Task: inverse folding
């Protein structure tokens, strides 16, 4: 029977993982639990719950740096930053509602009100970033340093509180996106930045995916510092909680600008003028802009209670997105929307027996992108590749890195790939 172990500090975690290594016992490392339904299902001897290792340990607003324990809820981080008008620039998403809509992210009591809270450690470990990635980079680009315990049961650290402290091997880049398969982090340091004074969003109404992507690419190549670029088809725009989005009864492309009030207003007007060659334009002001981009960030179009469809996260060259959307939404019961200016396609389709993984993989191969099965029942995530299959050389490299940090393979076994 799987036992849950709850270390309260790095020394206890070190002793626990050293014991697990010596006994060759596998462990599933869990922070807040909101991402347990992401990736391949883990079968482990024990669960290591890091919930006791939470809290902000250092915050220096003038130095734009924050250090926190891994299980610190993102909400707590954002509240502390908000008091100083600062933010996490990589805009970490909250996928709790998305995963809970099929039961994958439910808490112990099994209801949406018990959806686990995302944590800073989880956002960094999975390298999760929101719509602002096109301007500000991914989570790993704001990750300055960490302390962790390896699968060898050894405490180590990398990086520091400023970028210049990162010398030698930049292990922060390696840890971000490792999904807890290399080490269990015990402290995370991130860069923070001032929050924008104003947020405005220029809307292009009625454009199909091809014209929307053309418009978004043109806007992102402009000097107007676009910090979000998304497109929703009519079927998803109509369900938005933002009245101006839903009220158009048609597809909507959105382009966000942020900054001082006069600057945001000027750039939004300039974008609307630029977009007018593609169709009619509208505008969202700050409150509606924030609400809309939260919907995009958290993939809320696919998070309605009872939506049982599988969800894929597809990364492609923006110019390839329209044809990919046309091909895959030809499957009955499917929907798709675009983020990152077309570079990110969120696709929902009937779960079926295998989440249509062969059709998705074939389409992705033609578009030279990669696909992640983001939401699906456990039996499907166990049976089909969840992450993009890697060429043999990359698999061998990943295995060598895994062996260096976790030679007995005790940490989150098979979370990303069956043999890693």
Result:
């Amino acid at each position: 029977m799987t036992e849950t172990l709850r270390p309260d500090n790095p020394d206890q975690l070190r002793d626990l993982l050293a014991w697990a290594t010596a006994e060759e016992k596998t462990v599933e490392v869990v922070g807040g639990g909101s991402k347990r339904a992401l990736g391949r299902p883990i079968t482990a001897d024990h669960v290591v719950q890091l919930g006791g290792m939470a809290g902000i340990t250092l915050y220096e607003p003038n130095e734009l740096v924050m250090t926190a324990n891994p299980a610190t809820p993102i909400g707590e981080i954002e509240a502390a930053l908000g008091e100083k008008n600062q933010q996490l620039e990589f805009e970490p998403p909250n996928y709790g509602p998305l995963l809970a809509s099929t039961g994958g992210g439910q808490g112990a009591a099994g209801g949406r009100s018990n959806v686990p809270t995302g944590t800073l450690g989880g956002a960094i470990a999975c390298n999760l970033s929101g719509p602002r990635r096109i301007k500000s980079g991914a989570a790993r680009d704001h990750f300055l340093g960490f302390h962790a315990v390896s699968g060898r049961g050894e405490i180590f650290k990398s990086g520091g509180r400023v970028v210049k402290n990162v010398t030698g091997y930049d292990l922060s880049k390696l840890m971000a996106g490792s999904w807890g398969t290399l080490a269990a982090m015990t402290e995370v340091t991130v860069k923070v930045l001032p929050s924008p004074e104003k947020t405005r969003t220029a809307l292009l109404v009625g454009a199909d995916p091809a014209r929307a992507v053309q418009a978004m690419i043109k806007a992102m190549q402009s000097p107007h510092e676009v910090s979000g670029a998304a497109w929703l088809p009519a079927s998803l725009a109509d369900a938005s909680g933002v009245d101006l989005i839903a009220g158009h009864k048609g597809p909507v492309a959105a382009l966000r600008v942020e900054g001082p009030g006069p600057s945001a207003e000027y750039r939004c007007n300039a974008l609307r003028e630029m977009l007018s060659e593609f169709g009619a334009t509208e505008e969202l002001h700050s409150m509606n802009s924030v609400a809309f981009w939260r919907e995009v960030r958290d993939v809320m179009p696919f998070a309605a209670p009872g939506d049982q469809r599988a969800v894929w996260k597809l990364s492609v060259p923006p110019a390839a997105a329209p044809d990919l959307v046309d091909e895959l939404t030809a499957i009955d019961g499917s929907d798709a929307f675009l983020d990152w200016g077309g570079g990110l396609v969120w696709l929902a389709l009937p779960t079926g027996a295998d989440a249509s993984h062969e059709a998705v993989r074939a389409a992705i191969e033609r578009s030279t992108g990669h696909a992640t099965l983001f939401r699906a029942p456990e039996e499907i995530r166990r049976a089909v590749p969840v992450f993009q299959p890697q060429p043999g050389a990359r698999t061998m490299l990943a295995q060598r890195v895994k062996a260096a940090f976790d030679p007995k393979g005790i940490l989150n076994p098979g979370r990303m790939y069956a043999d890693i």
Q: What stands out?
A: The longest strand covers residues 183-191.
